[in-house]
Structures are given as C-alpha cells and as structure tokens.
C-alpha cells in the first residue's frame, strides 16, 4: 500500500484510508471550528505527546507522517516552516514549530497546563531535561553500523541513563503529588513527555532499564493506562522509536 503513496509524504491511517483523522471521546473541550494537521515523521519521539493530547481532548486531527528519506533531506525540509518537524498546522495558514511549543499551546487550550506558575515552570524543567537526554540518545538511533551502535548503547546504558533516570525518579518524588503524576496532583503535558520517553527507552533497551525506579514504572503505567491513550496506542503504527 505504501508504494502507491508519493515517496516524500505518506499519511498513515487506521483501516484503509490514506489520511488518518483520529476521533475519540472528548475529555476537555471542543475544537471551536479549528482544523489541525500534525506533520511529523513516522516516529513516536517528538510527535507522540502531541498525538496523545489530541486523543485526550477528543479533538480530530490529520496525522500526516512524512517519510524521512533522501528527498526530505535534499528538498522537502526547506519548504516546511523552520525546516524542522513536528509542525502543527491550524486551519489553512497558522503554523507552529517545535514540539514543546506545540504541546504548550495545546495544553493551554485543552486543560493540561497547570494553573500554578511554579508548576508550569516545573513542567518546562522536566521536558527540557528529557530533551537533553534525547539528544544524548539520538546518535544511537541514527547509527547504522552494528559495531558502533553497540558501543553507543553501552555508553547509554552504563553512563547516560544512570545519570538521568534517578534524577527523573527523584523529580517525581519531590514535585509530584499523591496521585502519582510528575508535577502536582493532576495530569499535565509534561506527564505525556515523560511516559513517552520512558516507554521508548524501555522498548529499545529493555524493561530492566527502570527496574530500580518504581516511581517511573508506576508513572508510565498510569499514563499508558488512560483509556484515550490506550485506545490510541492500540491503533497507531508500530514504530521502534
């Protein structure tokens, strides 16, 4: 089926249509007439927290997954926003780039932004540190040589994860409330980032990665068990990261 779709841009779908417009029960608010298109690669990494926000809010959106290939590197990226994905298109003209900026916009609109100013800052703090960890991990996922990849994984498992994971665990302990969320006592957009990355890292490096971190285990399970997220995950394309 994918061979019939233009090489540069492919939109994955549940069932048979080429464009996937996700609809779920509304949790927060209606769209108010806006239409949304999320442009990203067929990855979870920076796109999934945004897709989860739409699922939680019950807001329809077009999930446009762009092929990361030679055509993208040579031409397509120079025609899209800042040349970076994800990119959120609202209506026909409004575009927002950068995953955290998109997430904050949607969180403010659909109820996942804390009202407490310090809690807002803590969300930024957590997401920024997750992004720092992602940048350390990125060479591993981009490396195609098996020998070099094994060396990079060893460094991740023995150096970088042992530095960051206990700090994420401690963050939940200090900043989270009794409900098990990362910041305060209610679900925020930062929870989606944390659960997404922990899921991806354990998918790639094994569940034993967080065996010593019960709060991270509980947090990931709590977020992934949210009905709207669970339903989305059951239908999304299977990706390694």
TrEMBL record:
PROSITE patterns documented for this protein: GST_CTER, GST_NTER
Highest taxon in the source lineage: Eukaryota
Record-given protein name: glutathione transferase
Family the entry assigns: Belongs to the GST superfamily. Sigma family.
Catalytic reaction annotation: RX + glutathione = an S-substituted glutathione + a halide anion + H(+)
Stored InterPro entries: Glutathione-S-Trfase_C-like, Glutathione-S-Trfase_C_sf, Glutathione_S-Trfase, Glutathione_S-Trfase_N, GST_C, GST_superfamily, Thioredoxin-like_sf
EC numbers: 2.5.1.18
GO molecular function, one term: glutathione transferase activity
Pfam family for this entry, one: GST_C_3
Domain spans labelled GST C-terminal: 116-241
GO biological process, one term: glutathione metabolic process
This protein's UniProt keywords: Transferase
Domain GST N-terminal: start-end pairs: 34-114
Organism whose genome encodes this protein: Folsomia candida (Springtail)
